[in-house]
Amino acid sequence: xxxxxxxxxxxxxxxxxxxxxxxxxxxxxxxxxxxxxxxxxxxxxxxxxxxxxxxxxxxxxxxxxxxxxxxxxxxxxxxxxxxxxxxxxxxxxxxxxxxxxxxxxxxxxxxxxxxxxxxxxxxxxxxxxxxxxxxxxxxxxxxxxxxxxxxxxxxxxxxxxxxxxxxxxxxxxxxxxxxxxxxxxxxxxxxxxxxxxxxxxxxxxxxxxxxxxxxxxxxxxxxxxxxxxxxxxxxxxxxxxxxxxxxxxxxxxxxxxxxxxxxxxxxxxxxxxxxxxxxxxxxxxxxxxxxxxxxxxxxxxxxxxxxxxxxxxxxxxxxxxxxxxxxxxxxxxxxxxxxxxxxxxxxxxxxxxxxxxxxxxxxxxxxxxxxxxxxxxxxxxxxxxxxxxxxxxxxxxxxxxxxxxxxxxxxxxxxxxxxxxxxxxxxxxxxxxxxxxxxxxxxxxxxxxxxxxxxxxxxxxxxxxxxxxxxxxxxxxxxxxxxxxxxxxxxxxxxxxxxxxxxxxxxxxxxxxxxxxxxxxxxxxxxxxxxxxxxxxxxxxxxxxxxxxxxxxxxxxxxxxxxxxxxxxxxxxxxxxxxxxxxxxxxxxxxxxxxxxxxxxxxxxxxxxxxxxxxxxxxxxxxxxxxxxxxxxxxxxxxxxxxxxxxxxxxxxxxxxxxxxxxxxx
Length: 666
What we know:
4 domains, 9-stranded mixed β-sheet, alpha+beta, 20 strands
């Protein structure tokens, strides 16, 4: 029984995982196209939805697994050397906090500058409204229009009659603020003048559209660039928190304003921000909180300081800049000193590790005279001295080679004894032919097979596989053979036999050791086959007239896994010309140079296509196919083949038919 193999099975498992991933992805694509078609013709798609859901889970899980494996492989390759690992640790612990703090400070500074630019824009709008109010007062008193107003400024006077088409609320109230007229934002001031007689009050309305003219004036004044949307097109829904865990949905006009601000106002010395404003409706005079005007602002940082601190802000900026530069230089000097100290530590550690690595490679070459000779000034120095003492001990251990050679010769004697334990004679019944092959990977193998002539009408065969290799497996195999021979001679039935053998293996081996066992009783009088299995490969029944081999399945755990074992016995009919093939897992797990196993499919196809059903022919056919598949790759596990054939069954002893048996040793 072999331990898990690292390369071949992993590659095979990787291909299987890729196939599962590809099938799941194909199912998602197919079902996404097939679902709408079925919906149109009225066919329920619930099953497709469920399958698609699990397919998505499969694709996501496998993709995450592959990403994890790729990251792990990259990290191993990139940081194999100790020096690189130390450097990475230094970067993460020493340099990364500086970067994060810098990013945090830049983000905070940018937000502060954004809030300042937002306040500057609102201040400019408020200044324009205040100026319009002054113009309205002057116009009402003198009747003169402002000479330096924008050409798009609109003036309405109820006394002159050009305000009749304005909304009633605007003609009868004083107002100053932002208004939306047919989707376009406006700055509006409405000022009422008391009449000297009993006539109606006079109202003067100034309307300044927030258009490109107003934006150009703002840019010329302070370098501020703004973009906004006109006409109310391109409205989108925005969720805005109003407090108490509640949100309301608003219509905001974004259109291409952001694209225009990016095209015109993006640079390293500018701050881009956004301003949201609720506008008063032109027709009703009510504030529509669900309609927001979005204005994007791009403001030079130097102009922000001038806006808040006046014309002398340049001097403060220069002082602040010099202080920041001085702090940066001082911190960089401190950091460079720390980096230099860390580099010295990394170099010393890497040098010590490299010297230890050279020592281990020298020992690997067989040079036990190599000494590192480092001073024990630190932990690595003590490790180097321990290495020197170890090489001295290894040199002394070379004297034990002769003793090991003696032990090896004894192991070879034990291997010869193990091969002699295998049956030299086949079933003693007329019409029953038998052939077997045993090939251990080590001197002493863990595979086992046996033949029992129970009485004049019944015979039994057993095949097993002890986990692992070496002397311990051979001892377990010999112990089980002796116990099984005794139990069969005592006439123990299958359940009792397996229970007693399981108890023997469970008590006599380590918890990680176990044994698979298959036991078959052939009743030639009743023409039946009773097969009991404990974790071993199922035997194949080859029957004339049936092309595919028949697997006699009786699942159960191996011996020694648990204190108790539950076995199952499968019973099938025995017919003339039947052949039974028993194998150990070293046959189906035999790998080629690429790590691909021989496999059950290959074996079953061979058995189905092979016409000559004689035991020796079947045995040689299986061994030749395995040898061709494996090529020059040595066997990873013991290989055992046992074949029986039943022709012209006759009860009673048989003396004239020879036994064909082969055994190979490594």
